[in-house]
Amino acid sequence: MGPAVNSHGPGIGVSASLELLPIEILTRILSLIRTHDLTRAAQACKALSDACDRVIGTLTHLDLKNVGANLDDFTFSKLSKKLGPNLKSLDVDCWHLSEDSLKNLPKGLEELALCGCDLHTSRIISNVIDSTRGSLRRFAWSGFGCTPSAGAFERLLFNSPNLTSFRIDSLIQNIDVNVVVRAMADLCPFVNDLSAFDLTMETFSYIKQRGTQLKKLRHKRTLGSSMGITDASLVTITLMCPSLEELNLVDECFLPTGVENFLTDTGLLVLAERAATLRKLKLKLARPEVAELCSEVAVMELASLCGKLTHVELINFKRLSDPPAYELIQRCPRLVEVDFSYSSITDATLELLSEHCKGIRTVRVKGCRLLTSRGLRALELCGSLEVLNAGSASGFSDSVISTICSGNPNLKILVLSFAPLTDNALKHISMCHHMQGLAIHECNRITNVGLNVIAKGCPQLRFVSFSYCERITDAGVIALAEGCSQLMKVQLDGCKLLSNPCVRALCQKAPRLRYLSMNQCPKLSDDVFQHLLDGASLRFIVLGSPKLSTENTMAFHLKRQLVELLIDGKRFVASTVISGKK
Fold first, then answer.
1. Residues 54 and 118 occupy one common structural domain
2. Residue 567 to residues 33, 467, 508, 514: CA-CA distances in angstroms?
3. Most CB atoms closer than 10 Å: which of 279, 296, 455, 548?
4. Based on the domain organization, do 27 and 67 belong to the same domain?
5. Residue 144 in contact with residue 118, Cβ under 8 Å?
6. What 3-state class would DSSP assign to 282?
7. pLDDT digits 0-9 by tens, 246-279
């Protein structure tokens, strides 16, 4: 039989054929594709449009975090009208949405996560209150530079008495997050999941007094006045949370004076004795010096008493060596994730991990200098590894990469640096077709040949970094842009041969690109700003070149004031430049 001939003109025959199919069949087919691809399918013909509407109307969860500039007020309003009463959970990137966009939220939402609220005010929260009318059980807010008032969050909490999860992961201007969290303790008695920045010890004491018992706690310190990871903080948390299941503490502020600012065996032993229910534990210290008074014995006791752990991250624990790592691995056979970054573990730990923890999915050993190729090769036996971060770890070579990738074909994230890798290593990595994040730093033997292979083999890449791989040129990056259209974050710092054409390709071929870093790229010229205007989803740009003029930088900034722009490591602010000229 010869090829079918469409006598009705382009597209009409296809549309007519689809319209002959029962709507139930089209709906079933479309329900299998990714939600954010439904919009494209709906534009093909009326039959697909109707089927897409039916699919959207049945959704219970919708994730719109990675849509980029395609999610504007008009699109969101049109989509909201099609969402049915079944929708209970919604994640939205608000960066391209106005304050009033959330007036169109579907009724009855129980879970709402708003990210990209970089320049939003209290008005958007008021619209959330009006739309949800007390139905929220989980609420999350993230954004930097946003200016909502503490009162707006308090009104949200007052109108959401059944809230069980509250996450306010933002550095919000002009308000003290401690005030908001204390209001949460007063108004929402059922909250058991809290995530926040820079809370004080006094706030945690207040939460305890109000009777709030958390099962999940995530806290990050960036200010010296807030609560760090110390003996006192662990004692307070364990008293406040007798049934703690998840503890995630990140400390980015190092205060060198006073024993009270350090973590010792006392704190770890208290945690071990009082938190036997823990399943996820992350302690990221500001520097290894903070844990100088923590011995191997305390970590071993933690492993011995917390046998339900599935996720363990002990970062910057300089005395974490093989014996306590052995104890964790043997006492916690259901481990899914481990992070021993900047520790003193050796090959023996990775060999034991690969042998005993067959469910392991994530391994991070960043900065572990005692590792060799023997231990890294053992990771082949994991079989189901999805994330491997071994930046600055020693022992890597092309053959080691080949071994790891062949044994773990579902690898999704790989981070390496300072390794003598060649394009052959990238050929092995390209066999992991589910790869979403790839960072190969300071590997000077990597060339365009390797980038072309990655572009063909890893089309799902969202994050890529080839910083300080000085032999790659525009042609290699252009191949990446053309082969990996889902790219959202690209880092190419110190790639001295790159120039404007690769920026043009990234902005035109990767419509979801949010973050572009090309510091110390001397061949970039002022024309780069014209290409950057094509990047509708760009949110953060880092550039560095002697050829970039203040005038053209300012002209771009005035056109794209919402974009965070760093030039030579300094945040570009037009008002500062203008005042400087005066």
1. no
2. 40, 17, 22, 17
3. 455
4. no
5. yes
6. strand
7. 999 999 987 765 656 788 999 999 999 998 899 9
At residue 255, the pLDDT reads: 76
pTM (two decimals): 0.87
Distance CA 115, CA 92 (A): 6
Query: Is the domain of 81 the same as that of 192?
Result: yes
- Cβ within 8 Å of residue 304, ≥6 positions away: 272, 327, 331
Q: Does residue 271 lie in a domain region?
A: no
> For residue 500, which of 478, 480, 471 has the smallest C-alpha distance?
478
How far apart, in Å, are the Cα atoms of 472 and each of 267, 529, 531? 48, 22, 20
pLDDT of 4 above 70? no
pLDDT for 6: 38
> Given 3-state DSSP classes, what are the helix, strand and coil percentages for the chain, each rounded to the nearest 5?
40, 15, 45
Last residue of a domain, one of 472, 493, 509: 472
Tell which phi-psi region holds residue 134, choosing left (phi > 0), alpha (psi between -120 and 50) or beta: left
Find, among 143, 182, 131, 189, the residue nearest to 163 by Cα: 189
Residues 520 and 578 in one domain: yes
Give mean pLDDT, residues 420-442: 96
How many Å apart are CA 189 and CA 172, to the nearest integer? 24
Q: For residue 124, count CB atoms less than 10 angstroms from its CB and return exposed for 0-12, middle for 13-18, buried for 19 or more.
A: buried
Least confidently predicted of 3-7, 59-63, 316-320, 565-569: 3-7
Place of tokens 């990238």: 426
C-alpha span between 27 and 549 (Å, rounded): 54
Domain boundary among 446, 472, 498: 472
Give the burial string for 404-434 (b: 16+ CB within 10 Å, else e): bbebbeebbbbbbbebebbbbbbbbbbebee
Residue 170 lies in a domain: yes
Task: Kindly report, residue by residue over 473-518, the tens digit of the pLDDT.
Answer: 999 999 999 999 999 999 999 999 999 999 999 999 999 999 999 9
Residue 401: inside a domain, yes or no? yes
Q: Largest Cα–Cα distance in the chain? A: 85
Are residue 165 and residue 106 in the same domain, yes or no? yes
Strands 193-197 and 216-221 turn out to be parallel
The stretch 318-330 carries a mean pLDDT of 91
Residues 460 and 515 in one domain: no
Spatial contact of 100 and 125, defined as CB atoms under 8 Å apart = no
Domain that residue 113 falls in: 61-197
